[in-house]
Target: Cytidine deaminase
Amino acid sequence: MSNLIKNFARPDKAEEVVTFGSLDASTQELLKAAFAVRQHAYVPYSGFKVGAAFRAIPSNQIFTGCNVENAAFTPCSCAERTALTKAVSEGAREFSVGAVVAYQEDVFTPPCGVCRQFIREFATVDIPIYIGQALDHRLETKEDPFHPDDPILSTSIFNLLPSSFHTYRK
Ligand SMILES: [Zn+2]
Model:
C-alpha cells in the first residue's frame, strides 16, 4: 500500500441500523437533545426541521443546534454546523459522538456534504454519528421522543466521508 493513502480516513466499524433501546444512556440522551433542539428550527421556506447534537471531549458537555434558513437561501445554516459552531465558539474542539434527527417517511436524513466536511475538520479520529427519525406527534401525545424499537442509523464521519480532505497543517 502506498504511504500516500495510509493516513486516509477509514471507518472503525461499518454502518448499521440498530434500535434506540440497544444504545447506551449517553447516546440516547444525545438523540433526545437533538430531537428537542429540532423544535427550534427556523425553516419558513422548506418546513424541513433538523436537530443535531455533539458531545464534547473532555467535558462531556452536549452542544445542540437546529437549521436556520434565510430568504436569500445561500446564508442558510444546517443543524450540524449550528451545533459545532456553538461548541467551537465556547472553546470545545474535540467531539466523541454526534446525533442528527429529522424526518422523511422513507429514508434516514444523514448530514449534507458541506456538514460532513465541517464535522471532519474536528475528527482526528472517527466520530460515531447516530441518525434518528423525529416523530413530532409524540410531542402532542407526550410520549418519549424515541421508543426502544425505533430504528437508528449508526454510522460515523469516516463512513460518511471516506478518503476526505483533512489538513495541510504540520
Ligand atoms: Zn448540512
